[in-house]
Amino acid sequence: MAKTKKKRRLPKLPPGRKIQVLLNGRLVGNVDNAEEFIAKVRADRRAGLLPVGTNFFYNRRAKDILINCDSGRARRPYIIVEEGKSKLTATLIDQLKNGQMSWGKLVSIGVIEYMDAEEEESSLIALKEEDITPQHTHLEIDPVTIFGVTVSVLPYPEYNSSPRITMACAMAKQSLGTYTSNFNMRNDSRAHVMFYPQQPLVQTRPYKILKFAEHAAGQNFIVAITSMMGYNASDALVMNRSSVDRGLGRSIFYKTHETEERRYPGGQRDKFEIPAVTTQGYREERAYRHLGEDGVIYPESEVSTKDVLVGKTSPPRFLEEISVFGMVEEKKRENSLAIKGGEEGTVDSVMITDSLAGHRMVKGRIRSIKVPEQGDKFASRHGQKGVVGMLLSQEDMPFTKDGISPDLIINPHAIPSRMTAGHLLEMLGGKAACFTGEFGDSSAFLGDTEDKFRSQLKALGFDEYGEETLYDGFTGQAIKAKIYIGCIYYQKLHHLVSNKMHVRSRGPVQLLTHQPTEGRAREGGLRFGEMERDCLIGYGASMLIRERLLEESDRTFELVCSKCGAIGVRDHIKNIDYCPLDESTQLYQAEMSYAFKLLLDEIKALGIFPRLILRDRA
């Protein structure tokens, strides 16, 4: 026998206790009948006797009435429903259209009210007017308003799984486009601008309302869903090289460098100039080749790694020394602004101004053209992201009977496991839009349906499901299976491989530990961590561990006293080695990590004497 599910009973009030009323969390009084009280205050709010920013909620479990009017609550507008009818009548809608009625008036006369998350708990809200029943209390103005700004511009979100919508929302913020119309007048630290941004062929109503077409951040790609010799395995993409040559996915990257003439205590200050050869830390002469007489670079100069943008000399870090003749000679050190490793481009503009502190400042903006290459990241508006695995010439790409080659080939396995049916639907809608000349509507819940696009394609003589016979670009033979091909909006993301490529053999080391520096900006090494070390231990690759963690890191040779085990000292003046503890000269070189030598010094600072016991190598 099937067990009947027990109905959970709400706790009863203890005898004598009234229902408490809490205003912004503070107890302000008691009432006998909660329903009557809630109905009364709600009616007063709608009549304008109470502020419209007040919300009421009867917590049936805790038997408390919560009144909230504090700041920081997310509130949404709803149309009030009374006795199964919406209070927003056709007459009011006509008055709104004619300008005789305003939004604020609708709120004040009790047609629309704002509810917070708690009051929503005790309301029954209908999505559409035809769904209203006598039990409903409110009606959505438009179902698409459930979403925020970013999600509301994504096409067909109700057809995709929720994690993909979250990803698409995050990646829409990383897409390249025209972020502002006066980008050439600004000096942002980093900026990307797309060459030929387009608005999508399938777009939502909020996209039009928010006028995102004026700040488009993507392009319409012809996309085929099929495998391509393994170069689009997993999430990789095969891209049409000829389309790239014609400007597809091309963008420009601006980076601003700045420096200023600082003043120091004692009247000393920095100076913009081409450093003299005698300056301490003088770079090679080639680094200053683009500078003018004032030490500032000329616009439109082609610069590469370690080229100087602004020549600058600074006073020495320590006070000047008195020379042999008793005169104080002015010493300068080189402190120029130079391009870091791995960067190159053209000087777009140079601005000389004053900083907030009143110092002279120079800002130099470098531009570099970013053409899509292997490793660049692209994504559709359905969370289908991927990096370019191969650029293939148009003559080698598959083509339709009309001679159309795809700009992008994605893998079929990317669709079913991610459950992004919206991606397929947008491709179908984009294909129909190409021939009808009308934008497709992909608004959530109320957008164009698959049936509409299928009937449009069928009327145009295409396969109604968007599949076509493609011909192999290498052999010219028809591919046996029909391939799904359509038009869909793709975004180029700012994760560009040219801004991330990082390699190093030898380079700068930290002053304290003598280990390689960290990070691409400081020409740092690639960290070989504990987990990587554990893998090599599992393989038994002991010599490789030694090479990674010692020889290529902070290997050093230290003198060790054979008598007391202390670290010895080299006296360069007397040209002798000795032990600082017992002045013994019986010292031997020992190979160790510099971090270990540092540990010994720190242990000595605690008042503990560590000894190194030497023995002959077997």
What does this structure look like?
With 618 residues, the chain is of the alpha+beta class. It has four domains: 19-141, no CATH class; 163-250 and 374-492, Dna-directed Rna Polymerase Ii 140kd Polypeptide, Chain: B, Domain 6 (Beta Barrel), CATH 2.40.270; 259-367, RNA polymerase II, Rpb2 subunit, wall domain (OB fold (Dihydrolipoamide Acetyltransferase, E2P), Beta Barrel), CATH 2.40.50; 555-605, DCoH-like, CATH 3.90.1800. 19% of the residues lie in helices and 25% in strands. It is built from 13 helices and 32 strands. A six-stranded mixed beta barrel has the order 12-25-13-24-23-28. Strands 5, 6, 7, 8 and 9 form a five-stranded mixed sheet that branches. Strands 10-14-22-21-16 form a five-stranded antiparallel sheet, with no helix packed on it. A hairpin with a 4-residue loop joins strand 23 (377-380) and strand 24. The longest helix is centred in the last third of the chain and has 16 residues, at 421-436. The protein starts with 18 loop residues before the first strand and ends in a 13-residue tail after the last helix. The mean pLDDT is 91.
Q: How many beta-strand segments?
A: 32
**CATH T-level fold name of the largest domain:** Dna-directed Rna Polymerase Ii 140kd Polypeptide, Chain: B, Domain 6
CATH class of the largest domain: Mainly Beta
User: How would a textbook summarize the main sheet?
Assistant: 6 strands, mixed, barrel
Arithmetic mean pLDDT: 91
Total of domains: 4
Class computed from helices, strands and strand pairing:
alpha+beta
> Helix count, per DSSP?
13
Strand order of the largest sheet: 12-25-13-24-23-28
N-to-C terminal Cα separation, in Å? 81 Å
| CATH superfamily grouping of the largest domain | DNA-directed RNA polymerase, subunit 2, domain 6
